[in-house]
């Protein structure tokens, strides 16, 4: 069964997500931005969600995590929780 590890930043608006993505692309540290801006409890761990399999996260999130390149920041991805920036840190197919 596939497994992936990922980290994310959860914010309320697409605008905020895009601003944070721009900062990351400019060299800002993903984990530090997650700690400062993410509304998910994972923020205290730099947005790290650990390892999980398909179906353990909401569908929109799963779709990105199990198809996006490892190490590239994806998003904003909209779910019922808000807007996410997602980085797949590892994946085993």
TrEMBL record:
Organism listed in the record: Streptomyces flavofungini
The keyword Transferase is annotated on this UniProt entry: no
Biological function: PPIases accelerate the folding of proteins. It prefers amino acid residues with hydrophobic side chains like leucine and phenylalanine in the P1 position of the peptides substrates.
Compartment annotation: Cytoplasm
Highest rank taxon of the organism: Bacteria
Family affiliation: Belongs to the PpiC/parvulin rotamase family.
PROSITE patterns: PPIC_PPIASE_1 (PS01096), PPIC_PPIASE_2 (PS50198)
GO molecular function, one term: isomerase activity
Positions of the PpiC domain: 1-90
Protein name (record): Peptidyl-prolyl cis-trans isomerase C
Keywords: Cytoplasm, Isomerase, Rotamase
